[in-house]
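RECORD TYPE: inverse folding
INPUT: structure tokens
STRUCTURE:
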């Protein structure tokens, strides 16, 4: 999902959260109008306003804006709103720094809370959409460390660029947006591209091991060892067990891919925050005589898509003994969610779920191409194994972008012309069809590699 889509989601959740703490005044000024925001906040405090949204303060070069500041018995509770569904360790410094700045500005903060979405909440009853968790004790513990941390960060910001190589810190607590730029300077097959390397990547670098071919064999898992053999030989590796693993894939086959939206604020009956609801599918059907047909469906507008999609999906998969997916757990979860929302088709949907067979582990456990780069995502595997028209020509390049695009098209498309909507729908249909057509070609290629054409 793009950074802008994440920000937009956070804004929507933040605005809704304020309605759960009613009676307040919003500091409704541009986010970078720092001085005016601080002055407006001070005026509301002086006036005895009971709740302030986006109250803003600054001290010693540190600026803090509080999502919700609530007066309770003459003291203040600060509330940080998160669009996540639980308190995360990384949220606590955020709350602690607000507490620090407010107290230094003379605001008597007695309590700090994180207000986040509640996964148990189900539409249409949104009374318990938010959970407020008291994190005062955790924020208090961090207070002693803050003056030193602030000094260190201000000094870092005014200094030269730090000279630190990419490593696990680039992905914790979330992926750094500069990773593409920093990793471009790494040598090919750097240890950070080892399959599931995690923390061990930094340990390898510390030991002076920079590339995958240098790694000692004893430290590698079977998949990592296969990756190393492929890197060393510069060639595709195919294990002898591939033919046996492919026996499960017998026509008639249906190749299935869903695109989903995970709405922070649910809008359809029975849905919870971030349920991955399928709103689009593509099915390529491969008959026993080798002929193929294609079926697809995409939601149009904000209405509940589950019944319409489920009906078409059941028809598209009818007659297929095996339903092929890639990383099938995702498709299985989506089908279960559909079955709960469309009980009249639950039996047929369950039948689709039981016929699902996953092609990903077949590739992961038997095949490695040096261009996989440590990943078995379809976007890495297809270009390496079945070159041809692919994602580089597609306006939508990956699942997160498709999900954000679908959410925008379904719920926030008022500013789009009909032509633009049609063009975006067409791009999404093309993208989803690329995945299932790619699966058909991938299976054919695997069969050729295994000698079972
Ligand atoms: S990707 Fe980000 S965290 Fe990693 S080295 Fe580059 S700037 Fe630092």
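DESIGNED SEQUENCE:
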């Amino acid at each position: 999902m793009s950074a802008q889509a994440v920000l937009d989601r956070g804004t929507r959740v933040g605005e809704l959260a304020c309605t759960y703490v009613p009676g307040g005044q919003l500091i409704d000024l541009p986010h970078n109008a720092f001085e005016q925001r601080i002055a407006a906040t001070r005026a509301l405090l002086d006036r005895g306003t009971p709740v302030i949204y986006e109250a803003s303060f600054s001290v010693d070069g540190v600026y803090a804006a509080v999502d919700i500041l609530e007066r309770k018995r003459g003291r203040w509770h600060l509330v940080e709103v998160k669009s996540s569904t639980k308190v995360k360790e990384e949220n606590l410094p955020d709350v602690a720094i607000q507490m620090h700045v407010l107290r230094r500005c003379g605001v008597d903060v007695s309590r700090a809370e994180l207000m986040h979405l509640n996964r148990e909440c189900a539409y249409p009853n949104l009374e318990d959409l938010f959970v407020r968790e008291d994190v005062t004790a955790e924020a208090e513990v961090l207070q002693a460390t803050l003056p030193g941390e602030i000094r260190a960060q201000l000094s870092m910001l005014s200094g030269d660029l730090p000279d630190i190589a990419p490593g696990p810190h680039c992905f914790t607590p979330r992926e750094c947006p500069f990773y593409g730029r920093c990793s471009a300077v790494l040598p090919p097959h750097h240890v950070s591209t080892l399959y599931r390397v995690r923390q061990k990547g930094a340990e390898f670098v510390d030991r002076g091991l920079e590339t995958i071919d240098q790694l000692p064999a004893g430290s590698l898992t079977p998949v990592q060892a296969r990756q190393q053999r492929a890197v060393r030989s510069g060639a595709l590796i195919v294990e002898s067990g591939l033919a046996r693993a492919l026996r499960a894939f017998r026509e008639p086959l249906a190749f299935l891919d869903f695109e989903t939206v995970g709405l922070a604020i649910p809008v359809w009956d029975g849905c919870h925050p971030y349920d991955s609801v399928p709103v689009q599918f593509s099915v390529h059907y491969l008959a026993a005589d080798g002929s193929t047909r294609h079926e697809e469906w995409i939601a149009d507008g904000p209405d509940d898509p589950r019944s319409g999609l489920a009906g078409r999906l059941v028809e598209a998969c009818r007659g297929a003994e095996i339903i092929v997916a890639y990383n099938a757990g995702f498709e299985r979860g989506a089908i279960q969610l559909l079955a709960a929302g469309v009980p009249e088709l639950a039996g047929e949907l369950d039948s689709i779920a039981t016929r699902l067979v996953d092609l990903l582990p077949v590739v992961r456990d038997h095949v490695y191409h040096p261009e996989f780069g440590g990943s078995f995502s379809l976007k890495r595997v297809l270009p390496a194994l079945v070159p041809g028209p692919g994602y580089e020509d597609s306006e939508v390049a990956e699942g997160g972008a498709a999900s954000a695009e679908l959410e925008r098209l379904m719920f926030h498309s008022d500013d789009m012309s009909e032509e633009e909507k049609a063009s975006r729908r067409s791009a999404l249909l093309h993208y989803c069809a690329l995945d299932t057509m790619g699966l058909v070609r991938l299976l054919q290629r695997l069969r050729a590699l295994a000698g079972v054409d």
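NOTES: The chain has three domains: 3-154, 168-176+185-219, 236-453.
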